[in-house]
């Protein structure tokens, strides 16, 4: 009797195993990660710095000293990047300050134009616009209040952020300087019969995660090229566009933001073009935006799937479920969960599906 249902029992056990793995990842990320975040970041930095430490060891530099040198190098690189960013923002603000009068005059001009246009509208339409503005005011107040609250909370969290950074740097040094001892200790905790599979699991997972982030960079590069060509065409045939490469780079970087993507830059840009009376520019930008969204939706599952070694449908499913469960964070968590499941399958630790 049991033999008759053996196939279904095995299938149920596999589903239960998958559910337990996914639940463990969910609990780990949702509830445990906030407590161990500095150490997780420290592990990542330590592994990134490991090739530098190994190179210094070959040059007869003691590992502890090599760990300090590699960590200082990382801090210096980050400091340079942040400093350049702050200087760039400062220069832009100074430039903006010098042009405030020009922009305010333009805004007054556009406001006057809109007022004159609004007065000539039929009563029904002007009434609808008025009601729309009235209903928008509470939302605007709520948005402003929320932004102020967020800024206050951010300022309050500065001491906490300082502690986070100090803990991360110290942890990075200790992990990097004693990497071999820590690895040896962890491997001793694993049963010997699991060691080979665990090594394969680690290698396979790291390779797949690197592939995933390579896929994201590739998608950003495609967005950069597409926006560049689009802006060049607009600049040639419609209206002159300055700083094409910089603008394309900003749009490409925004493409890394889950869900919102390029829309966080392109939609305000399109609306601004309409407000200043440049509909041709707005239409051109809209074509670039829609083309980019369509191309990404087509290529993303394929590119990410190829890097992870998964079918595009499985990748798409992982991204969708991740977004539903974790929100924006799920854009990364979904595929990473699928990576871990695939690694269990590949290494033979757990046969989740029949190949």
Distance between the termini: 27 Å
Helix content: over 70%
Gyration radius (Cα, Å) is 27 Å
Number of discrete domains: 2
Shape: globular
Task: Please count the helical segments.
Answer: 12
The count of β-strands is: 0
Strand percentage, roughly? under 5%
- Uncertain ranges: none
In short:
The chain is mostly helical and 355 residues long.
Describe the structure.
This protein has helices spanning 6-58, 63-98, 100-119, 123-156, 158-177, 179-188, 192-237, 244-254, 263-275, 279-308, 312-326, 330-347. The relative contact order is 0.08. The chain is globular. The chain has 2 domains: 1-121 and 169-189, no CATH class; 194-355. The protein is 86% helix and 0% strand. With 355 residues, it is an all-alpha fold. Helix 7 (192-237) packs antiparallel against helix 8, helix 9 packs antiparallel against helix 10 and helix 10 packs across helix 11 (312-326).
Q: What is the strand and helix layout of this fold?
A:
Elements: H1 6-58, H2 63-98, H3 100-119, H4 123-156, H5 158-177, H6 179-188, H7 192-237, H8 244-254, H9 263-275, H10 279-308, H11 312-326, H12 330-347
Helix pairs in contact: 1-2, 1-5, 2-5, 7-8, 7-10, 7-12, 9-10, 10-11, 11-12
């Amino acid at each position: 009797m049991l033999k008759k249902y053996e196939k279904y029992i095995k299938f149920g056990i596999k589903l239960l195993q998958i559910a337990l793995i996914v639940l463990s990842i969910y609990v780990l990320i949702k509830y445990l990660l906030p407590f161990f975040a500095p150490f997780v970041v420290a592990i990542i930095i330590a592994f990134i710095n490991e090739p530098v430490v190994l190179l210094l060891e070959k040059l007869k530099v003691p590992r502890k000293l090599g760990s300090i040198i590699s960590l200082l190098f990382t801090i210096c690189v980050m400091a340079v990047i942040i400093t350049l960013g702050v200087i760039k923002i400062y220069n832009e603000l100074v430039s903006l300050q010098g042009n405030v009068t020009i922009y305010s005059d333009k805004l007054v001009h556009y406001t006057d134009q809109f007022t004159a246009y609004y007065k000539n509208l039929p009563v029904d339409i002007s009434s609808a616009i008025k009601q729309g503005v009235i209903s928008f005011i509470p939302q605007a107040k709520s948005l402003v209040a929320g932004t102020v609250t967020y800024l206050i909370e951010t300022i309050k969290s500065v001491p906490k952020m300082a502690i986070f950074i100090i803990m991360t740097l110290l942890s990075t040094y200790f992990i990097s300087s004693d990497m071999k001892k820590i690895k040896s200790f962890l491997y001793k905790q694993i049963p010997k019969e699991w060691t080979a599979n665990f090594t394969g699991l680690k290698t396979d997972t790291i390779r797949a995660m690197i592939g995933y982030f390579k896929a994201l960079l590739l998608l950003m590069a495609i967005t950069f090229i597409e926006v560049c060509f689009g802006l060049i065409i607009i600049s040639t045939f419609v209206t002159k566009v300055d700083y094409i490469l910089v603008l394309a780079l900003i749009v490409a970087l925004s493409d890394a933001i889950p869900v919102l993507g390029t829309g966080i830059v392109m939609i305000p840009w399109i609306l601004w073009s309409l407000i200043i009376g440049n509909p041709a520019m707005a239409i051109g930008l809209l074509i670039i935006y829609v083309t980019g969204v369509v191309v990404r939706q087509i290529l993303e599952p394929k590119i990410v799937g190829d890097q992870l070694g998964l079918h595009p449908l499985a990748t798409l499913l992982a991204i969708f479920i991740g977004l539903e469960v974790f929100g924006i964070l799920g854009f990364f968590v979904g595929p990473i969960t699928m990576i871990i499941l695939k690694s269990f399958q590949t290494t033979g630790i757990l046969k989740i599906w029949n190949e």
